[in-house]
Design a protein that fits this description.
Length: 63
Amino acid sequence: RLSDSENVESWEEGGAHDMRSRAHQRWNQMLKDYEAPPIDPSLKVELEAFVNARKAQLPDAWY
């Protein structure tokens, strides 16, 4: 839950986290908890080949 409707005193006692801070904590927890779904090994090989081919065709971006 990102929003908080607690009173100011409860919010301060809880660490006074704003929405940005709560979103960052939630995002980090989601990354920590992520498990890649199982994928057939032959499909993985095909996907990697496709990605590598596309990377070779497109210029590298800053991101």
